[in-house]
């Protein structure tokens, strides 16, 4: 029921109790001293059990480990030692008067009774700490046997006919409490196991019938020991019958990955106990792979691999990266000024043309307000007015050296999820050269008009 070493040691104590009771009932009840005189002076077995009970409060030690490792041998030895001690002590009592050593017997019994209560107190504290019901049962049962010893010593005169009956009653009560407690504990554990089974079934079904991920478990030799239903029935070639033929990590799917990738995965899992990433198969399929090393016990470990095919998303993402790279190349090399601002009018992107024309560093503009580079009188509501009136706007931008540059801007709203606005994109063109040409045209026309008037007046 319990796998803790402490409970096996306590089991040995009760085996000693039982062997002693049977031995006394069968061989000493009709002896010349009778059970009435023998019960309170059985010191050797009491001392033997006191030594055993000491191991219940000690931390892990070699003796306890050896006793638990060879349980059947430990039970046999406990029985033999108990019978041997009883026989030796009874022979000693037959050869010597019981009364001659009564003070020594009583003194030793009192010392061990105090010792037992000390041990039981420690077990009670452990019961509170570990919240184990079985501790309470064991403490109650052993306490009954200790009370029997106290009663026997308190009424030991060799002629009290009630001692035998009371001792038998207390012995019965000690074992009865233990049996009832163990029965209750078994029922409690059965219920806990049922709840645990239900919880484990949920986790098992979550893995076995996972509709999203493939799950394969490998042993320490990298051979698969389990594959969920999605893996087993994903292809007729990969059925329950031949899943065991897979031999290493590169066979996580029907599409093998390269040996180099397999080695990288294995080295990473060995070193860090996990691996997470995207691996490419030899047929250009892409897998999102998670591998984790889990210790089953102190000696064994398994590798749990979870993966799914993300080829479509992977290719789309790669194409998106290529398109983004092309777009970035265009925007970075175009002569027009391109800016992006969020809904709070913070600058989130500028191309090289903005940096070169205005004289700012990119770090100085990013996350700064758009009004930093606008003419003060045009900085208020320029975006909202543009969108309401027209996307085109001629205005001034302020350089870092406070030089003013005339630009023509086109402002477009960037939508998120086709519903909410994520910000604005502004494309501006320097009008300085155009304005200079316009000014030259005007001056040229003025000069032509002046020449015409001058000729007419002659």
TrEMBL record:
<keyword id="KW-0808">Transferase</keyword>
<feature type="transmembrane region" description="Helical">
    <location>
        <begin position="132"/>
        <end position="151"/>
    </location>
</feature>
<keyword id="KW-0418">Kinase</keyword>
<dbReference type="GO" id="GO:0016301">
    <property type="term" value="F:kinase activity"/>
</dbReference>
<dbReference type="InterPro" id="IPR000014">
    <property type="entry name" value="PAS"/>
</dbReference>
<feature type="transmembrane region" description="Helical">
    <location>
        <begin position="104"/>
        <end position="125"/>
    </location>
</feature>
<feature type="transmembrane region" description="Helical">
    <location>
        <begin position="163"/>
        <end position="187"/>
    </location>
</feature>
<feature type="transmembrane region" description="Helical">
    <location>
        <begin position="70"/>
        <end position="92"/>
    </location>
</feature>
<feature type="transmembrane region" description="Helical">
    <location>
        <begin position="7"/>
        <end position="28"/>
    </location>
</feature>
<dbReference type="InterPro" id="IPR052155">
    <property type="entry name" value="Biofilm_reg_signaling"/>
</dbReference>
<dbReference type="InterPro" id="IPR035965">
    <property type="entry name" value="PAS-like_dom_sf"/>
</dbReference>
<keyword id="KW-0812">Transmembrane</keyword>
<feature type="transmembrane region" description="Helical">
    <location>
        <begin position="34"/>
        <end position="58"/>
    </location>
</feature>
<keyword id="KW-0472">Membrane</keyword>
<feature type="domain" description="PAS">
    <location>
        <begin position="323"/>
        <end position="375"/>
    </location>
</feature>
<protein>
    <submittedName>
        <fullName>Putative Two-component sensor histidine kinase</fullName>
    </submittedName>
</protein>
<dbReference type="Pfam" id="PF13426">
    <property type="entry name" value="PAS_9"/>
</dbReference>
<keyword id="KW-1133">Transmembrane helix</keyword>
């Amino acid at each position: 029921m319990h796998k803790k070493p402490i409970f096996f040691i306590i089991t040995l104590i009760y085996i000693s109790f039982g062997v002693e009771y049977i031995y006394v009932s069968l061989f000493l009840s009709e002896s010349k001293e009778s059970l009435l005189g023998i019960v309170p002076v059985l010191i050797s077995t009491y001392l033997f059990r006191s030594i055993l009970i000491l191991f219940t409060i000690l931390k892990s030690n070699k003796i306890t480990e050896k006793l638990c490792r060879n349980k059947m041998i430990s039970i046999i030895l406990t029985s033999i030692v108990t019978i041997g001690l009883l026989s030796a002590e009874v022979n000693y009592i037959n050869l010597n008067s019981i009364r001659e050593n009564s003070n020594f017997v009583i003194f030793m019994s009192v010392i061990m009774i105090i010792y037992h209560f000390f041990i039981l107190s420690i077990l009670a504290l452990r019961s509170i700490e570990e919240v184990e019901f079985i501790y309470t049962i064991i403490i109650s049962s052993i306490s009954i046997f200790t009370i029997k010893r106290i009663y026997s010593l308190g009424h030991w005169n060799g002629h009290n006919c009630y001692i035998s009956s009371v001792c038998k009653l207390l012995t019965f009560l000690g074992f009865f409490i233990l049996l009832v407690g163990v029965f209750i504990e078994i029922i409690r554990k059965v219920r806990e196991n049922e709840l645990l089974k239900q919880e484990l079934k949920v986790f098992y079904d979550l893995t076995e019938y996972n509709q999203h991920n493939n799950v394969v478990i490998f042993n320490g030799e990298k051979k698969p020991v389990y594959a969920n239903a999605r893996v087993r029935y994903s292809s007729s070639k990969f059925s329950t019958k031949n899943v065991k033929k897979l031999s290493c990590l590169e066979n996580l799917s029907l599409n093998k990955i390269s040996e180099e990738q397999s080695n990288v995965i294995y080295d990473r899992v060995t070193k860090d106990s996990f691996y997470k990433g995207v691996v490419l198969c030899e047929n250009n399929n892409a897998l999102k792979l998670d591998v984790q090393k889990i210790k089953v016990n102190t000696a064994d470990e398994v590798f749990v691999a979870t993966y799914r095919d993300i080829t479509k998303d992977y290719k789309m993402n790669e194409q998106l990266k290529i398109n983004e790279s092309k777009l970035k190349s265009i925007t970075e090399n175009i002569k027009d000024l391109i800016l992006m601002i969020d809904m709070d009018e913070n600058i989130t992107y500028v191309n090289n043309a903005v940096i070169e024309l205005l004289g700012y560093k990119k770090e100085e503009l990013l996350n700064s307000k758009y009004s930093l580079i606008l003419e003060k009188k045009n900085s208020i509501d320029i975006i909202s007015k543009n969108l309401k009136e027209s996307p085109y706007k001629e205005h001034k931008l302020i350089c870092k050296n406070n030089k003013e540059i005339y630009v023509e801007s086109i402002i477009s709203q960037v939508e998120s999820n086709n519903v909410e606005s994520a910000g604005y994109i502004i494309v501006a063109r320097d009008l300085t050269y155009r304005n200079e040409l316009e000014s030259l045209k005007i001056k040229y026309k003025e000069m032509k008009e002046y020449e015409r008037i001058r000729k007419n007046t002659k």
